[in-house]
Amino acid sequence: MIFLNSSRIIKKVLTTSAYRDVTNDRPPSFLKDYLYQGGQDIGFNDYNNLLVKLRKISHTVIRLYGEGVHDFEKMINPEVDVLIEKLAQATDKESFDMDAAFSESLIRIIHVFLTNERLEAKEAEEVFSTVEEFNNTFNRIIAVDKNLILLMFPWLQHIPGSNGDLVRKLRHEHKKILRYFLAPDKTEVCHASTNFQLGNGSLIGTLRLEQDNDKELTDTMIEGVVSDMVIGGFSTTHGALDGIFLLMMKYPEVQRRLQKEIDDRIGDEEPSLADRSKLPYTNAVILECLRYIRHIPLGIPHYVREDIEIEGYTIPAKSTLVTNLYHTCKDEMQWEKPYEFYPERFLDVDGNLLPSDHPTRQQLIPFSVGRRNCIGESFAKSRMFLYVTRLLQKFEFQRGKNKLVSEDSSTWIRCAALHPQHLNCKIVARK
Ligand code: HEM
Predict the structure, then answer these.
(1) Is residue 224 lining ligand 1, measured as CB closer than 6 Å?
(2) What is the 3-state secondary structure (H, E, C) of the chain?
(3) 8 A C-beta contact, residue 283 and residue 276
(4) Which pLDDT tens digit goes with each residue over 100-110?
(5) Which atom of ligand 1 is nearest to the CA of 369?
(6) Atom 27 (ligand 1) nearest CA
(7) How many angstroms does the Cα of residue 44 sit away from the middle of ligand 1?
(8) Minimal CB count within 10 Å: which of 48, 65, 170, 418?
């Protein structure tokens, strides 16, 4: 296993023409073989024409330009409204469970993204618990130690004991997720629905339409992409939002400055994605949270197709490359004051956000880079922007009498996506 410890090396190895054809596969893993039938999805597939096709289809649905921006807001805002209403009712409580509230809100959005339909009240509780359980079990198995044990001794899944129990639980929850999202009545709705249009339609609807003309796109692949999105679209952004709001409570002066920027530049208007350029400090805070928390610590491993040489080291074919995003975010060789929460690092002397090609921005790569970079990057960033601006415009988030977890993410729940143990707070309505 080779750890790539700086943004410069990660970019060189994953994106430059000298390497990229041979560094963008995925290594063998228990989940790849046993849940995704050898990588019949996006996240675990090797780099091949089919993967390119699946990524392209997903991108057409997450179309965050032109009319797509408006569609995206139409998808997110009603769900943020539900959350705002819930928070408004909690303003008299000493302790409100923000972690659970984000979880439900994000699951609602995934539901619309996949199906074009808002989650119905009668199904909500069951869908929340199914998605949460599936994510928890998946995250436990994908952790390096469990994944390796099960890859080396796959028969462990068939005998009584904790490993077998975990695998059986995952299979059961996986089936439940697919049964729910790919039920024939839901798929028909996805195909036909006209009351909501996101890009070419919902992700499932778009995949089904493609499948009508492309026999290469099998049911197994559609299942794979659906579970990728349930995993990718949920635990990553959940950890990020929890982290941002935890830091807002730990650094109330940052929270106040961000709110002042919203008040001064947007006032009482509902924030929209078009406001991003008006809010440099807010953008800088979001970037700094991604750096400071580094909640996807080791990315997703890559696999080397042929022998290569990196900076004088020979890396044999079939080696696993780990993008050590955890280290790159606080590398003392890369960052000034790496252990300080310091959003100003992303602003110039006039308070403008540094351009995206500025070296400081370029070395922040929480979504990785190149052919396998996160396909949900703009989706995740836009969603975080709307949650942060809309919630902080209306409420102040205070610690109150609640005990907050450490801001050091290495003490959080250890999974593929780091996540604080809890996030309880006091919510105060802003006048
Ligand atoms: C803050 C939120 C997120 C972060 C930090 C994040 C980070 C990452 C990282 C580091 C990778 C691995 C890239 C590589 O292999 O080099 C990845 C892959 C991926 N992400 Fe995300 N992600 C986020 C949100 C999302 C969302 C919202 C979705 C879906 C809508 C998503 C879907 C995926 C998928 C499908 C892949 C696999 C891509 C491939 O293998 O080709 N992610 N993400």
Answers:
(1) no
(2) CEEECCHHHHHHHHHCCCCCCCCCECCCCHHHHHCCCCCCCCCCCCCCHHHHHHHHHHHHHCCCCCHHHHHHHHHHHHHHHHHHHHHHHCCCCCCEEHHHHHHHHHHHHHHHHHHCCCCCHHHHHHHHHHHHHHHHHHHHHHCHHHHHHHHHCHHHHHCCCHHHHHHHHHHHHHHHHHHHHCCHHHHHHHHHCCCCCCCCCCHHHHHHHHHHHCCCCCHHHHHHHHHHHHHHCCHHHHHHHHHHHHHHHHCHHHHHHHHHHHHHHCCCCCCCHHHHHHCHHHHHHHHHHHHHHCCCCCCCCEECCCCEEECCEEECCCCEEEECHHHHCCCCCCCCCCCCCCHHHHECCCCCECCCCCHHHHCCCCCCCHHHCCCCHHHHHHHHHHHHHHHHHHEEEECCCCCCCCCCHHHCECCCCCECCCCEEEEEECC
(3) yes
(4) 999 999 999 99
(5) 16
(6) 233
(7) 12
(8) 65
Q: Is the pTM of this model over 0.70?
A: yes
pLDDT per position as a tens digit, 304-329: 999 999 999 999 999 999 999 999 99
> Considering Cα of 295, then 301, then 307, then 313, what sign does the dihedral take?
positive
Q: Give the CATH number, domain containing residue 128.
A: 1.10.630.10
pLDDT reported for residue 195: 40
C-beta 229 within 6 A of ligand 1: yes
Q: How many domains does the chain have?
A: 1
Nearest atom (ligand 1) to Cα of 371: 41
What is the CA(58)–ligand 1 centre distance, in A? 12
Q: Is the CB of 300 under 6 A from ligand 1?
A: yes
Residue having the nearest C-alpha atom to atom 40 of ligand 1 = 43
| Structural domain for 7, as ranges | 2-429
- Summarised one tens digit per residue, pLDDT across range 61-75 is 877 666 678 888 888
Mean pLDDT of the chain: 90
